[in-house]
Structure formats: structure tokens, C-alpha cells
Amino acid sequence: MTTQVSNDGNAAANILSNFSISNKEPEKKSNELGQSAFLELMITQMNNQDPLNPQENTDFIAQLAQFSSVEGLERLNSQFESFSGSFMSNQALQASSLVGRSVSVPTDTTMLTPGGIVAGSVQLEQTTSKMSVSIYDDAGSLVGSVPLGLQEEGEVVFRWDGQFMEVNGELLDWSAGEEPLPPGEYRFEVNALIDGQSEQLDTSLSANVNSVTLGNNGEIILNLAGVGAVNIGDITQFN
Q: What does this protein do (predicted)?
């Protein structure tokens, strides 16, 4: 009787044990083929090959070489991703030092800050006898038109503080009025007489960096006052 009970107890324990095992959550298996798994597969392949038609040693060597190459590439990719992430972080850290500074970007609109100066530049493909800079406020009203006269081929640089205009280091006998214009957003339009016709030229203007953003694709974006978001690669000059 005792033996029967003992056997029943063992049987019950075995049933419970099997039930417990069968109800365990199956372990998640990786789809990746590691080095140890690859070697096991190769040994199994060797053990089960046709003795009358065995696989050549060169075939095994080729498999090992192929696996080593793939493993090396994966390791290289992993190291490169780590290096790339570190490089982008360092770039973002260096770019953050630009906050509060002024940079120049291709644009026709920027912000005149209190006590600040707007620096601009245009590239002349040939000498012109007549050139002018027109300035518009954020409402689109013309607040000043500055005649620059004769300008030589090359880069023409101007600076404006809301009242006076300086061109290529020379202060012009012109002002927007007795009092400087208030800080705010202004648009600049530069025209030059080229081959007898008036042409509008592309301008680069200075703007203050308000903040720096690191994009999803690793691009560094500068948020400029009066301009908006600009890729750091579009900066033409750090003032």
C-alpha cells in the first residue's frame, strides 16, 4: 500500500512537473548565426557528409573565410556606428558654442537686434555703374533705398545699424532719418545695373543663433533669429 502511494505521489509529481514545464513561456530564439552556432553546423555537416563523396577541404575553408568576413563586417559596422554617434555628439557640442553669436546665410530677411548691426554681402559678376540696397520692414513697407553708385566686380559688403549704411568699409553720406529704425525683421533687396538692365542679386545676411538642434538624420540645424531653421552646411561665414 505504501509503495503504491509513493508511486502515485511520484507520478503526480511528474505530471505536475511536466505541466509546469509545458506552461513555461518559450525562450525567444535569436535569428542571428553566431560563431559557435556556425562551427556546430559545420561539424555536423562534416559528420554527416557522404563518405563516398566527402566535401573538399577547400569548401570548408571557403565557408570559414566567408563567415569571418561577414563577422568582421558586422563588427566594423558596429564600431562605425559608435564612432558616428560620438562624432555627431561632438559636432553638436561644438555647434552649441555658436548660440548667441552671429553667422551669415543666403537669405534676404533677417532680424535687427537692439544695438545690433546687420551685415550683408553680394557677389558681383562684373563691374556696375549703378547699385542700390532697398530695405523693407516686416509689413512690406519700403523704409529706405540706399544708392551705392559704382561698384567693382567681386564681393560687395555692407553693414547697417538701422540708420547708417557702410559699404566696403566706407561710411555713406546717407541715413534712414534722424533716429535709427526700431529693432525688428527687415528684408533687403540689392539691385545692380548689368548690361543696361537692372538685376536683383542674391544676398547673404547676418543673423544671431538662438539655438542648435540635432536632427534625426544627424544634421545640425541652427535656429536663426528672423531667418528660421538653417542647416549648418549652408552657413557662409561665422561672424
A: Required for flagellar hook formation. May act as a scaffolding protein.
In this structure, how many other beta carbons lie within 10 angstroms of the beta carbon of residue 6? 10
Question: What values do phi and psi take at 223, rounded to 5?
Answer: -95, 110
165 belongs to a structural domain: yes
Selection from 32-41, 54-63, 182-191 with the highest mean pLDDT: 182-191
Q: Model confidence at 85, in pLDDT bands (50, 70, 90)?
A: low
**How much is the pTM?**
0.61
Domain of 145 in residue numbering reads as 102-238
Q: Is residue 132 part of a domain?
A: yes
CATH number assigned to the domain comprising residue 139: 2.60.40.4070
Kindly tell me if the per-residue pLDDT of 33 is higher than 90: no
Does residue 31 sit within a domain? no
Of residues 70 and 140, which shows the higher confidence score?
140
Task: Compute the distance between CA of residue 166 and CA of residue 160 in angstroms, rounded to an integer.
Answer: 7
C-alpha cell at 229: 531653421
Residue 210 parent element (H or E): strand 203-214
CA atoms within 13 A on the CB side of 126: 7
Q: Is residue 203 part of a domain?
A: yes
Please state the φ and ψ torsions of residue 235, each to the nearest 5 degrees: -70, 130
Amino acid at 124: L
